[in-house]
Amino acid sequence: MESLEPFNLLWKDKEIKFDTPNVQKHLRNGEQVISTIYYIEDTKGNPGDSGRLLATNLRLIWYSLVHKKFNLSIGYGRIANMNTKMTSTKVRGNCLALYILAIGGNTRFEFLFTDVSGETERKNTPIFQSVFDIYQLYQRTYLYRDLKLRGAILQSGQLIILPQEQVINKVNGVWNLSSDQGNLGCFVVTNIRVVWYADANETFNISLPYMQIANIRIRESKYGPALVIQTAETGGGYVLGFRIDPTERLTEIYKELISLHAVYTENPNFGIVYDSPDLRKRSAGDLMQRKDFKVEEFQEIDERQEKEINSKLNTYLAEGSLMVGEEKPPREPVYCKELGFAMERIRDNYKLKDLWDILPQQMITVEEE
Predict the structure, then answer these.
(1) In this predicted model, what pLDDT tens digit does every residue of 307-338 receive, in sequence order?
(2) Helices within the chain (DSSP H only)
(3) CA pair distance 343, 106, nearest whole angstrom
(4) Which residues form the BBSome complex member BBS5 PH domain (predicted)?
(5) For residue 74, what are the contacts with CB-CB under 8 A and spacing of at least 6?
(6) d(CA 96, CA 18)
(7) Are 165 and 213 in contact, with CB atoms under 8 Å apart?
(8) How far is 50 from 116, CA to CA, in rounded Å?
(9) Which of residues 118 and 34 earns the better pLDDT score?
């Protein structure tokens, strides 16, 4: 069977990189810059260099505007602690700074990003709040990115569906071949991940996002043909086997997984949807503006006018109707100067204007205004 093409491993959120050429321009598929903070200094590593701090859905990026080769990439998965504090210098006075403690391997890294804008109003503004918000969203969306074994992914026997997740296929009676005797369970295919859970024990389960799948193939096993999924190095490097009967069904699921994996890795969904406080304020302001209207600014519509719509025309037509047993002779035609053609002579006590105007004069005046 044909296997997957090599793909770009997800490492951006799990590593700390220094001085990567043009790091701010080389974002991986699915990575987005969510927040940009200007006039930020890497105080510990590059003091005196003003730069920009970017918060993506996977990491923090700082790059210098003074020396192009100086930059940082800090994956959210390496951050152990993060807070803000006030720093003081003789040149700039009190400045707000973002302190980050990160751990890479056996090494501890401390970063201090300081606001060097010199703007007084920024000293009392939480300019780093977006970083905290995005980092918290990252921690709550791990199922989009990471392999999870024996997780709390079910409720009342049903898979808990993630935001923006859609179930593509669900196959019952699938054997997990990780043990000698095998375990019977349910295999769920979505647009984000593959899930399997045992029928006898729901806590025995696997949630595997496509981003952590390195290879999918069909191989012979002592149980017959089996679907074999190998996870990436960042996903533990596991080899998972599943038996799906009949063979036609196994081949169908295999082809479906190959297709979904190709679509997902082309444009991954990492699950982070962030609404900035400024956007929320504007939305709240628009809502309040819609609610805070004055009744006197609107004109009341008089429903009685509907009954007044050319009552003379209705009366004229009613009088001209033929009654049972009664026959009225047609009136002779006359030339009408206003209309420019011949018409039936209007009956007594009526004018052409009475029959021509559809709306009462009061309603016409309102519409013209």
Answers:
(1) 444 556 656 555 554 444 445 566 778 877 77
(2) 120-123, 129-140, 247-266, 277-291, 311-319, 352-356, 361-368
(3) 102
(4) 31-85, 165-219
(5) 16, 59, 60, 61, 100, 102, 109, 111
(6) 24
(7) no
(8) 7
(9) 34
Q: Which two tokens stand for residue 353?
A: 């204007």
- CA–chain centroid gap for 217, Å, is 32
- Amino acid type, 250: L
What pLDDT does 55 receive? Answer: 97
- Distance of alpha carbon 236 from alpha carbon 10, whole angstroms: 12
Whether the ω angle into residue 21 lies within 30 degrees of 0, i.e. cis, is no
Predicted confidence at residue 282, as pLDDT, reads 52
Q: Which amino acid is at 86?
A: M
E strands, 65-212, where? 71-75, 79-89, 93-104, 107-115, 148-149, 154-155, 158-159, 167-176, 183-190, 193-198, 205-209
Angle at 43 between CA 42 and CA 46, to 5 degrees: 60
- Strands 183-190 and 333-336, bridge-based pairing: unpaired
Q: What is the DSSP string of 216-279?
A: EEEEEETTEEEEEEEE-GGGT--EEEEE-SSHHHHHHHHHHHHHHHHHHHHS---------HHH
Where is average pLDDT lowest: 77-86, 126-135, 297-306, 315-324? 297-306
Instruction: For residues 8-23, give the mean pLDDT.
Output: 90
d(CA 118, CA 96): 10
The predicted model scores a pTM of 0.72
338, two tokens: 């206003």
Tell me: the pLDDT tens digits for 179-191? 777 889 999 999 9
Q: Which residues of 4-25 are buried (b: 16+ CB within 10 A; e: fewer)?
A: beebeebbbbbebbebeeebbe
User: Is there a contact between 219 and 228 (Cβ–Cβ < 8 Å)?
Assistant: yes
Q: What is the three-class DSSP state of 211?
A: helix
What are residue 67's phi and psi, to 5 degrees?
Answer: -120, 110
